[in-house]
Specification:
By secondary structure, the chain is mostly helical. The protein has two domains: about 1-40, no CATH class; about 85-200. About 60% of the residues lie in helices and about 0% in strands. The chain is built from 14 helices and no strands. The longest helix has 12 residues, at about 160-175. It starts with 6 loop residues before the first helix and ends with a helix. The relative contact order is 0.07.
Length: about 200
């Protein structure tokens, strides 16, 4: 049975994170985590305004939800705990793993592991994660010429080490792949600094 929440209660639940919550409001949140409608549970998993001490209890429960769409929301939540993200990085669904790879709170060691993932979308999410460690960047550079999305995200990442950019440019200078060179120049997301270094190579 889908829980019907009075409008006035929902308005209270949507208020600022720092506002105190009544015991009944907290109880409702836990009831919503068990609601029969996956959209309700997913909506709860998206909430950033819930007090942290409550999220630490709700998110682990939702991380084991039977519906992958709910687990995806947890995987991209900015307040998901290290333990929850580590668990979801091993999820059976690659879309959930992709969300973990893009979460800036994901532990560095997990991002390094996901940089070696067999699916390009997961590697691309690591490439675009500004909190990815240099070890992950080093692994991803080797995939630049084979994964368009990885290359695009990595080159747009402001934290990619200069030496990795240099390696990419040097590979282009050596004529490793003319199609990649063309793709870099035509991609509107390519930073101008990179474009300027590649342009003379045409």
């Amino acid at each position: 049975m889908v829980l019907k929440i009075p409008d006035e209660v929902l308005k209270q639940l949507a208020r600022d994170e720092d506002a105190p919550m009544t015991p009944r409001e907290i109880e409702i949140l836990f009831e919503l985590a068990k609601d029969a409608d996956w959209k309700v549970r997913a909506g709860l998993a998206c909430r950033e305004d819930i007090p942290t001490e409550i999220l630490t209890e709700i998110l682990p429960e939702l991380a084991e939800d039977e519906d992958k769409r709910v687990r995806e929301r947890v995987a991209e939540h900015g307040k998901a705990s290290k333990e929850v993200l580590i668990k979801l990085a091993e999820d059976d669904d690659v879309c959930v793993q992709e969300k973990v790879a893009g979460n800036q709170e994901t532990p560095k060691e997990v991002l390094i592991k996901l940089a070696n993932h067999s699916f390009e979308n997961v590697r691309a999410s690591v490439a675009g994660n500004p909190e990815a460690p240099v070890e992950a960047f080093a692994l991803l550079v080797n995939a630049l010429f084979y994964d368009d999305e990885v290359r695009r995200n990595l080159l747009a990442n402001p934290n990619i080490p200069p030496e990795d950019v240099d390696q990419f440019i040097n590979d282009l200078r050596n004529g490793r792949d003319d199609e990649v060179r063309k793709s870099v120049l035509e991609d509107p997301n390519t930073p101008e600094a990179i474009r300027a270094r590649v342009q003379p190579l045409r």
